[in-house]
């Protein structure tokens, strides 16, 4: 581990204390996990504390861990489904950080908005809301950004059907785009394997 990552880890532990649920260093990056209740306060401290100095939000995205745990005890979140991951940059200190927090309720995932901490989070949070259904209280304009306003469901959730629920087409008689139930038949492609009768026999 580099001296820089060691310094960052120590600064995080001394500043955040028990609010750090986990701190891991892998592939030259530090990843911390905090509870959703502590998320907003931690993010403000990550920006405002000179020893950390993360003045820039590079990225923020939603994640769906459905089926990820399946019998494993070492997975993050311990069974929680939806997470928000942010990537932060400190230009002054020349280091990066990944922050993960899990929504407490899988049925209605909620994570505080960090738009008031970093303005650049605006469209990232709208995307996570649109594609995963994660709600960000405190966001100034939380509405869909990629899908249509009448879209049903959240297409990046792992239980969302590949073909969706509705399809759109242009109706020349009505002179507009109309919605209709999906007409694509679900199918499963199974590769056809052809082998010689003697395949695998000892010579």
Strand order of the largest sheet: 1-2-5-4-3
**Number of E strands:** 7
Order of helix and strand elements from N to C terminus = HEEHEEEHEE
Give the low-pLDDT segments: none
**Which superfamily, in CATH terms, is the homologous superfamily of the domain at 3-142?**
NADH:ubiquinone oxidoreductase Nqo5 subunit
Structural class: alpha+beta
Would you identify the CATH architecture of the domain at 3-142?
Answer: 2-Layer Sandwich
Structural account:
The protein has 203 residues and is of the alpha+beta class. It is extended, with a radius of gyration of 23 Å. The chain has 3 helices and 7 strands. The model has no long low-confidence stretch (mean pLDDT 88). It has a 5-stranded mixed beta sheet. A two-stranded antiparallel sheet has the order 6-7. The chain has a domain at 3-142: Beta Polymerase, domain 2, CATH 3.30.460. It has helices at 3-16, 39-48, 121-132, and strands spanning 20-26, 29-34, 56-64, 82-90, 95-102, 166-171, 176-181.
